Amino acid sequence: MSSKTNVGRNVPMRRFPEFRGASEWRENTLKDVANFIKNKMPLSELTLETYVSTENLLAEYCGFSIASKLPQLGAVTRFKQQDILISNIRPYLKKIWLASFDGGASNDVVVIRTKDNASSEFLALLLMNEEFISYVMKGAKGVKMPRGDISLMRKYPLSVPSQEEQQKIVACLSSIDDLIAAETQKLDALRTHKKWLMQQLFLAEGETVPKLRFPEFRNAPAWQVKKSSSLFINRVEEGDAGLPIYSVTMNDGMIRR
Predict the structure, then answer these.
(1) CA distance 166 to 120
(2) Of 240, 29, 202, which is closest to residue 123 (Cα–Cα)?
């Protein structure tokens, strides 16, 4: 996509200052910048930690999980660290992973390896987007378990800048990924803390006071144990379609639905 100042030029809308006067990006197809790997490896070399299939590739470009089982027959495709693995079953699940180790992939996983004119990280970024997924889905065959057409995948059009500009883009987006990962860890820690607080602030079986109370309530009376029927009034009403609508009202009138 080009900006108004770059109409007719094969350059992105936003470009780092040092590349704004650089040459246009080179138009290619996927097969021009990457090889589709078919080399096989025996099952005897596989472990649960090095086997990748469509089942343990994670959706939404989220990597992979350790396999729960290994294939019993046949052979698998040998892949290397920095190869790009694409699940070819139900492509819309967006299972694409930049390999962080050597291993073997099931036959339903497409393995591609970049050539000298593109970096693995940059190509992975080009493929981890809606445009590529939509392109693959247009040629997919099957309804329940659609599969991408590899011959069409080879023809996927893409543009590639110089190695220097590729590295700049990868570094920028990787720094954002690192920030997202750090914030996600903070959010997970907050969820864990909330779960712990709920275990401390509410009664456990056999208790009359919670393990943790706010300072102003530490000398307050014990909690009262009551049946739910004394706290809630359940009503059943008729909806527009004649279906029952269940409503819960607190006896103290504080919460109504």
Answers:
(1) 10
(2) 29
Contacts of 61 (CB under 8 A, 6+ apart): 94, 95, 96, 97, 128
Backbone angles phi, psi at 88, to 5 degrees: -100, 10
CA–chain centroid gap for 66, Å, is 16
Model confidence band, residue 1 (pLDDT cutoffs 50, 70, 90): very low
For residues 34 and 80, the answer to whether their CB atoms sit within 8 Å is no
The type of residue at 167 is Q
Question: Which tokens is 31 given?
Answer: 């097969």
Contact 68, 102 (CB under 8 A): no
Q: Give the residue with greater pLDDT, 177 vs 232.
A: 177
- List CB contacts of 238: < 8 A, sequence separation 6 or more: 244, 245
pLDDT for res 249:
60
Q: Is 50 exceeded by the pLDDT of residue 127?
A: yes
pTM: 0.77
Q: Where are the beta strands (DSSP E) in 106-205?
A: 109-114, 157-160
Query: CB-side exposure of 77: number of CA atoms within 13 Å?
Result: 22
- Mean per-residue pLDDT of the chain: 89
CATH code, 22-161: 3.90.220.20
CA-based torsion, 31, 142, 132, 105: positive or negative: negative
Q: Is the pLDDT of residue 229 over 80?
A: no
Could you tell me if 65 and 149 are in contact, meaning their C-beta atoms sit under 8 angstroms apart? Answer: no
* Every domain of the chain and the residues it spans: 22-161, 226-250
Using a 10 angstrom Cβ sphere, with 0-12 exposed, 13-18 middle and 19 or more buried, the burial of residue 228 is exposed
Instruction: Look up tokens 């208790």; give the residue.
Output: 207
